[in-house]
Design goal:
Rossmann fold, 3-stranded antiparallel β-sheet, alpha/beta, 6-stranded parallel β-sheet, 2 domains, 279 residues, Pantoate--beta-alanine Ligase, Chain: A,domain 2, 10 helices
Amino acid sequence: MRVARTLPALTRAIAALRARRGRIALVPTMGALHEGHLSLVRLAQKRAERVIVSIFVNPTQFAPNEDFRSYPRTFAADLNALAAQHVDLVWAPAAETMYPEGFGTKIVPEGAALAGLEDAFRPHFFAGVATVVAKLLLQCAPDIALFGEKDYQQLKVITQLARDLNLKTRIVGAPIAREADGLARSSRNVYLTPDERKAAPTLYRALQACAAQIAAGQPLGAVLDEGRAAITRAGFALDYLEARHSATLEPIGSAQEGPIRLLVAARLGRTRLIDNVAV
């Protein structure tokens, strides 16, 4: 497995992969890899002959009050995990490589990025994500790039980004990887205390309950109110629980306006968790 840390090294490594022919897949990550990331790698290996994994903790998607400095960084363990998966190339640039002195360009997405979900609570976030993902796609020039559905709004933003900018990479969404008790896998789960970890799966159970009630024909508003109350009773500070059109993320008023995606974000102690399910 090759590890590239500079743009010239990346260019040489990708040229070598292209010379071997076959499709190339990119799995962008911020490191602190867990089974969810590795499931993306395995899916990439099914869809392409060569797999690149990027590891870059992107400073531009963190607000000053967020956890950029404390975000878990486990680079040596990440490399070992990726080597065990037989990844072809790891792209691990420094911040100065991605944002050199004088860098002055930012992509500010609209559409799904202004759905009133994550953007309402993290207004800086999607500009940082869109800019860094565009750079990664241009740098690595993969045939496909894989993103998990846990960050569902992000997946929609990136899909629109690639379409709107006529990028040649096809964006592929992958199912959410979950722990045995249903908690969506996330690098931030390490922040949970033992008691918080026991309570955390309530978020997914509430989503499941809401989805089942909506599918059974219960009124949408009443179901969401009940779900919000259940999440709050479990000790979460709720940011949102919303039913949105699964393709556009537009608000909907009834199940007949679907297909529906239920999306939730809530804080448990100092840890912010997000999740979603289809109805």
